[in-house]
Amino acid sequence: MNYKKLLFTEGLLTRFSAFLLTFWVLFVTTIVISHLSLPEGLLLGKTTGGNLELSSNFFVSTLQILTYNLISIICIVIGSLFARRKNEKDVYHSYGANVLIVLAVLFGLVLGTNSFGIQVENVSLLYKILGLFDVTQRSAIWEITSIIMMTSVFSNKSLVFTTGKKTTTIKWKQLFFSKLEIGFIIVSLLFLVVGAIVESTAIYSVLSK
Known about the structure:
Layout: H1 3-8, H2 12-37, H3 58-80, E1 82-85, E2 93-94, H4 96-112, H5 125-130, H6 140-154, E3 160-163, E4 166-169, H7 179-207
Parallel strand pairs: 1-3
Antiparallel strand pairs: 1-2, 3-4
Helix pairs in contact: 2-4, 2-6, 3-4, 3-6, 3-7, 6-7
């Protein structure tokens, strides 16, 4: 079966599984390559997150992190409104998926080169990967799952379709969201909130030492 079809035209759970696999393969591969071949701190101060100055108030800092993370969601949703294919036999490719791919590589580079906004001890490659699954101390799983869920929902929710040089559009009211898709959106946003709380807690834990 065409892998692109799994990402953009199959059922929601199939799309989610395909995007989950795509993200994690790119993410882990980038972590390994950047950890082994790139200098530590390569992206320090060069990403929005690296330049983010958090408030000393826990509640405000959590909102700051949440707002920053929502930028990724917004970019995915906006990108998903546009879809393109080479010819009529091909499957439409939503640009929101491109945002997810960029995020997978960017997140991998930040983790692999230890380029976080606050100074943390550089650890072994194995710990970098396994540490991601500490959901009480690391926000990665919450945030990654959130953006993958949102991408899988909107990957076939385009308004502007381009085939070759021909472009057609539909109206907002023509978009349909199933109950499962609406549930995915709600859970995705909840995960983003949990991730912001976990990340804010972890940052204050590091700064208080």
